[in-house]
Amino acid sequence: MSSADRLADALYGLGWSTVKRLPEPVAVRLGRTIADVAWKQRGKGVQRLEANYARVVPDAGPERLAELSRAGMRSYLRYWMESFRLPAWSPERVKAGFAAKDLHHLTDGLASGRGVILALPHLANWDLAGAWVTTELRTPFTTVAERLKPETLYDRFVAYREGLGMEVLPHSGGSAFGTLARRLRDGGLVCLVADRDLSASGVEVDFFGDRARMPAGPALLAQQTGALLLPVTLWYDDSPVMKGQVHPPIEVPESGTRPEKTSVMTQALADAFAAGIAEHPEDWHMLQRLWLADLDPAKGPS
Predict the structure, then answer these.
(1) What is the dihedral of CA 234, 293, 204, 52, to 10 degrees?
(2) Rounded CA gap, 239 and 71, in Å?
(3) pLDDT (tens digit, 9 = 90+) per residue, 269-301?
(4) Which is nearest to 68 in space by CA: 47, 82, 83?
(5) Which of 50, 81, 119, 208 has its CA 20 to 30 A from that of 222?
């Protein structure tokens, strides 16, 4: 293990062991202070966040983009402070920490027994939303996690999410898709963060006026299992309660080849994500390159 990997593992371990013991107001202030320091340093992550916001809010000038990136870093650190503290939250605190609109799309889908896929972008705190589902709705679900390096850090994330009531599968390897399909055929719930896929299997979509890739998994699972595919968007406001919206289901097209159907459904997913991100851009924690033109500058903007 490299020294950088050891440092990363130690820092995350410190977060889960120490931050969760802090009084909530102290943790909130700590997160905001760290966010402001990081924002002022203008590292690569902050610069990328600002560049991504420039696509989401194309008429924003430099001053507005700076305001957005500062708010974005505060939102991002709120996510981390909450995530470090979630294992110590009581069931009552978890239930009180999230409020969802149009929840009937999810509850009716589960009641039908056909299985449900929730697909989310990197908005606000998807871990809190998941903990709320397992606590308030008493519904376990299955998700996937990227294999992080070092392996000990990946193990920390798996243990953290399993402690919140989630079944976590590794993203790498071919077995995850089959397991997800079995859970859905049994009428279960699957939750996937699905706004970024840099692999060759990613589906090209139009996203805020330019091309990006998003994972094919949600659409393929819906086609293969008959499960309901529901986009979900999340956001913070000035209250301690995170908000969410369960969007209407994305239907499987009646005609077309499997790749054509997958393309149509993934584009519909991207459109739902874009609507939520446009309303709350500061809560979109995308500190990496996403659009194809940014991945390959030679392509230039479309």
Answers:
(1) 0
(2) 15
(3) 999 999 999 999 999 999 999 999 998 654 444
(4) 47
(5) 208
